């Protein structure tokens, strides 16, 4: 309210100082009365929004933010993010966390940042969540079918009650969308607030954005890109075909990159899986060594049975330890359900043949049938080899550069040969069998060949910035140099010191087990940084 101080009775330019005081007092009184009157009918922003919310229908309220009808048969829902309107306020992150009742350290929507260079400055905030891909990697990789793509809306849903917490979907997703919930022992992720959409309400992130930078759109599935990427720094779209669309009035510059793209961080170690891989590969190698010796006619049935028992023992320990990796270990029996698509299910089925092979070997040995025993050992060796090959594909299928087929196959098959030959050498030395004389040189040959190959690839990737796994090599060099140095010391001990000592006439009985133990330790170290240096792709910032 504006008061005219020159009105008669209130004040004028010729007023005395006493009149000025009276004028000021009267003005304060009128202003206070006006404020008190306004306070009686004051409506907060919440009250104003509440009244508008109650008066409007959902269709009217969010008509410009969500579709008003379900997708057609060749369409699906998708997020559309207007980069020009996104300010990075994180209202969408907070709303998603609050309305979905997430735990303190849990987030289904993240905020990232794209930057330019010093010569070409650029800055753009980016909000990201699940892209509800047309060909979702999480769904294809899940061994228990805990993912479902809604046939009508196209929303990729996670079925919490079916999840066993294996975290394979986290490794498979190239956008780092699924998040493991330690409290519940399962993985969870964004479902586009499908319950709200079904009632005509906008998802939490859409409703909370003050600039309306996020919308839900309907798009044709065939229009989802197969080439390129949805955003600078994101994984190639041909892998999963993400449905999210990022729009801007000005095209993103070619030099734009994620602000955290140069960050070198260690990934989760997955210790139970590291132990499982090394133990099962040693078991497979020992079965192959035993079968080879049987076909060469150098092992008796009793010696073959003992060697197979040693191989089976370590294989079963490895399989048992893998269960410790699960958030819901009591549901592990369901892991075969996704065998049509998931390499993890196929790996589990293949390793499941080891106990059956052990029973067959025991039965044929008890029946004193050498021919059937040889076939049983050979069949078990074949199943174990198939399981190791499935293990290779479990990680190759994630499309991570550090887990590319040549690298992963070389490491896994090399470990199988080194430790398998070493276990055979130890077993035959304790049995006093002469076959140890060719198992020892084989172990030494495999040990040096694998180590030289690994180190040459590592140094080449570290020096070549264009290498696909240069980032992983840099992580190894920055965080895990001590691990590499320890492996070098172990190589000298097992590949030089112990063989020379044995050649000088030392006892095989204890030096061979020591050599096997040190070699096993070296491979276990390698298998742990196989996970921690994997450097999986993700969206900017999350």
Automatic annotation (TrEMBL):
InterPro entries: 4Fe4S_Fe-S-bd (IPR017896), 4Fe4S_Fe_S_CS (IPR017900), DmsC (IPR007059), FDH_Electron_Transfer_Unit (IPR051555)
Region (Disordered): 1-21
Main location: other
Keyword terms of this UniProt record: 4Fe-4S, Iron, Iron-sulfur, Membrane, Metal-binding, Repeat, Transmembrane, Transmembrane helix
Gene Ontology CC annotation, any one: membrane
Residues covered by the 4Fe-4S ferredoxin-type domain: 77-107, 154-183
Any one biological process term the GO annotation gives: anaerobic electron transport chain
Protein's cellular compartments: Cell envelope
Bias-annotated ranges (Polar residues): 10-19
Entry keyword Transmembrane helix: yes
tRNA processing among keywords: no
Ranges annotated as spanning the membrane: 273-298, 304-327, 348-367, 373-396, 408-430, 436-453, 488-512
Pfam families: DmsC, Fer4_11
GO MF terms, alphabetically ordered: 4 iron, 4 sulfur cluster binding; metal ion binding
Domain of life: Bacteria
Name under which the protein is recorded: Fe-S-cluster-containing dehydrogenase component/DMSO reductase anchor subunit
Native source organism of the sequence: Prosthecobacter dejongeii
